[in-house]
Amino acid sequence: MNGNSMKRAGFAAGLAAGLMTLGNAAMAQDCTTKIGAVLPTSVDWGRPIAETAQYVVDQVNEVGGVAGCQIEMVLRDSQVDPKVGVDAAKALVDLDGVKVLLGAVSSGVSMPILTSVTVPAGVMQMSCCSSSSAFTTLSEEGKTDGLWFRTFATSGVQAATGAMVAKEQGITSIAIMYKNDDWGQDIGRIIAEDFAALGITVTGSVALNDGAPSYRAEVTEALRGQPEALYLALYPKEGIAAVREWISLGGTQKMIVANALKSDEFRDSVGLQFLGDTLGTDTASPRVASADAFVTQYTDRFGGAPNGPGLANSYDATMIALLAMEAAGADATGDEIAAAIPRVTDPNGTPITADGAGFAAAVDVLKAGGTVQYQGATGNVRFDANGDVSAPAVIWGFTEDGIEEKRYVSLEEVDAFIASMN
Amino acid sequence: MIQSLLDGILVGSILSLGAIGLTMAMHMLRFANFAHAELLSIGAYAALVFDGLFSALFPPLAAAIAPLSLTWALSLAIIISMAVTAGSAILVDRFVFARVRAIGGELSMVFASFGVALVLRNLISLIFGLKTQLYSQDIVFAVVISADPLLLVKPDQVFALVAALVIMLILHLVLSRTTLGYSLRAVAENPTLAQVSGIRLSRMIALIWIIGGGLAAVAGVFYGLTNQISPVIGRDLVLPIFAATIVGGIGSIYGAVLGGFLVGIASNLALVILPSGYSPAVPFLIILAVLLIRPNGLFGEARE
């Protein structure tokens, strides 16, 4: 530890101690604010997501809680079931009177909670892990009342990166083949819009069904416009069949593929000799200090690295929700808390770290009427008008030994590119 | 349009081969065998194993027969695979279907066949894994038949079509010109009367499985050759093959051939009119249309 960070740690500790007394004073008035969480704790990957959320609450309580009150997170199991999730959310909103609801994980559970519980009740909902673009659409239609946020990037990032690759390669016409499921339809639709925005002609957009005996007809359909390149949002099984068919029919070998085809099975079955011009995209963890710091503190606390899905996202979702509650002040409504989100994710605000000390620092800045920039486990989180976040991306290719990263596209680059298309 | 028609015929030949075996079993053994398509998987995997074996033992055999991706080793493997598949079909009949047939009704047979299909499919997954496999890693490029309108054909597919037609012709000759064929048809018409005339029913049943299994093996290998091999071949093909059988009329071998081509062509042409997401529904629309107009299928006869 060098002198500088020592000094900072000392400062934070002093600050924390000072706030502790404040918190204790508040505790004396027996003041507790409840927040709700609907997470799939009954499945093995859901439990750590909930534990991460509780960890944030503990950290914040240690430095005095939110607006002088201790936070109590009331956790209910969603069982990855929309009906159970809605009942749990209803109970939290009606009985516990929460103004902030964390969750759910699956888009299919978050959506009915949003439309039938949180929006009607004016409660802010923050999800760590729902990726469906249906939420973006809902928000664009004005049906979320600005109460919906998520710290998980949508398929839009992946699509934008694909479009970025196509643009950089100077491609002017492209065909799209997508898997006929929620994910494939989502990404297929978004990237078609992206290509159109970039002036790249989409010669055809073909859905591939699971388990069709042959994709010959679909491939023929995609070939019809004689595109310069091919975009694929497929899983390896139908990807292999379709791409082999595509190449044998003389289709272009210039392909751009989504992350689902990042597989050795795909590379081996199609053959590396045909995949030299193929570039893939994927979202990535941010390569910033705050993300590394999260990994360190998580490992210290739980005795293992945060390798499960959505852990960094859960940390940020909870921390931002609590920061917004702090910014909105005591007894704020869900609307007021949601409206305070920009104050804690302001790119020009005072940077704060993702830990208890960071929260304590934010409290001071916010009390003085300033804004803060939360530098979280998933990087510098910033929500767009629809409550969506962006994420860094990687561009990769196939090589002799497997899959190799070609380029890391930082969050700023992704954001700038998405902005340039609108 | 012409390309779709051509593709449909090429895909259809594989469905036809599968449908012939199914229609024979359905007609003569009087039950809808949902496990029939699993015989295609068995055939495809048996050929994969023996193809590997022959290529390893006699490396010269691993050379492809230009312009196909088919190798000499695989050609030999097809013959062994036909025997293996026919043998599996007879074994399944002996251990499952024969016992159910003795004590249960038609519906019990249908359910038994569902069970057999699941067991076979999972056994294959267990042995070979869920991943996709190929006979040859090479991709053989399609041949341009005409540039305008653009017509492309893969040599493998043409080979599969020609081979399928030859096999169908041989089957036709056997059924219409030999005593064996007459016996088979007699059993189909009236099993009791056939037995009275001195035809051994058990031998005829075995024969049906040999023909059905052999054809299924060929269809499975051709499917693997023109597409890929995976444990779910049976699941993916069972409905199109049933569609072909029902459209052609249960019991009619010529109907099954025509049905296979019809279903293949219709699924390919459907994409010209419908968005690609809806194409799996097309074979069933054809079934509905045919059954409304000809309740026994195109070539089927009413059975009391």
Any descriptors?
heterodimer; A: 422 residues; alpha/beta; Rossmann fold; 2 domains; 7-stranded mixed sheet; 5-stranded parallel sheet; 16 helices; 19% strand; B: 304 residues; mainly alpha; ABC transporter involved in vitamin B12 uptake, BtuC; two-stranded antiparallel ribbon; 2 strands
Question: Can you walk through the features of this model?
Answer:
The complex is a heterodimer of chains A (422) and B (304). By secondary structure, chain A is α/β, with parallel strands linked by helices. Chain A has 16 helices and 15 strands. Chain A folds into two domains: 11-152 and 310-380, 3-Layer(aba) Sandwich (Rossmann fold); 156-283, 3-Layer(aba) Sandwich (Rossmann fold), CATH 3.40.50.2300. Chain A has helices spanning 3-28, 47-62, 82-94, 107-121, 134-140, 155-168, 182-197, 216-223, 236-248, 264-270, 289-302, 311-328, 334-339, 341-344, 356-367, 411-421; strands at 32-39, 70-77, 100-103, 124-127, 148-150, 173-179, 201-208, 229-233, 255-257, 279-283, 350-352, 372-376, 379-380, 393-399, 402-409. The two termini of chain A are 46 Å apart. The N and C termini of chain B lie far apart (42 Å). Chain B is an all-alpha fold and 304 residues long. In chain B, helix 2 packs antiparallel against helix 3 and helix 5 (155-177) crosses helix 6. In chain B, a hairpin with a 4-residue loop joins strand 1 and strand 2. Chain B has helices spanning 2-28, 36-57, 72-103, 106-128, 155-177, 179-189, 191-196, 201-226, 233-248, 253-273, 282-293, and strands at residues 143-146, 151-153. At the A-B interface, strand 7, helix 8, helix 9 and helix 10 of A face helix 1, helix 9 and helix 10 of B.
Arithmetic mean pLDDT of chain B: 87
The CATH homologous superfamily of the largest domain in chain A is named Response regulator
Task: Give me the number of helical elements of chain B.
Answer: 11
Order of helices and strands of chain B: HHHHEEHHHHHHH
Number of discrete domains of chain B: 1
Query: If you average the pLDDT of chain A, what whole number results?
Result: 87
Largest sheet features of chain B: 2 strands, antiparallel
- Strand runs of chain B, count: 2
* CATH structural class of the largest domain in chain A: Alpha Beta
Instruction: Just name the CATH architecture of chain B.
Output: Orthogonal Bundle
Which secondary-structure class do the elements of chain A indicate?
alpha/beta
Number of domains of chain A: 2
Helix content of chain A: 40-55%
